[in-house]
User: Which sequence fits this backbone?
């Protein structure tokens, strides 16, 4: 353990439009090269698209998408003797949210579409409906007994 003091977790301020910390975290994940105003414009355009297409409050659709994407269990490598086993472990809330945002943005970027706002809006709506690329990554968890032989497949459904 380090003798130095550890970094304290800084609270994320909520965004000015929807007053949501989750949306503020998403803006920071989308941002590239320090262009926060561009990232915020992408997010808010995506929220407008979601509101037009669904007719619901866009922040509720977004929160439902993140809730659907957040994993409950992940596998970690454990070395026992000479073998390495993949052991399922519970995911802390903060890490689960971080993973959900990472997957959402990763699959939105790889999606076909005209603008990032439309791609992000489509991925958010798909995740809220429990479909789309990010849901495929979250839905299947394979626990391995040996590197070549699967022992058990767990499908996580919220």
Assistant:
């Amino acid at each position: 353990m380090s003798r130095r003091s550890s970094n304290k977790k800084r609270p994320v301020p909520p965004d000015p439009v929807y007053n949501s910390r989750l949306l503020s975290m998403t803006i920071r994940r989308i941002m590239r090269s320090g262009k926060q105003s561009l990232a915020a414009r992408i997010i808010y355009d995506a929220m407008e698209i979601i509101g037009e297409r669904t007719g619901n409050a866009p922040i509720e659709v977004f929160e439902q998408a993140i809730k659907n994407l957040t994993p409950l269990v992940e596998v970690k490598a454990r070395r026992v003797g000479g073998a390495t086993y993949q052991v399922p472990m519970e995911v802390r809330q903060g890490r689960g949210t971080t993973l959900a945002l990472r997957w959402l943005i990763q699959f939105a970027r790889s999606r076909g579409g005209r603008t990032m706002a439309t791609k992000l809006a489509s991925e958010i709506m798909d995740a809220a409906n429990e479909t789309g690329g990010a849901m495929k990554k979250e839905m299947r968890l394979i626990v391995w007994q040996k590197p070549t032989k699967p022992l058990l497949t767990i499908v996580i459904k919220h």
Q: What stands out?
A: The chain is about 50% helix and 20% strand.
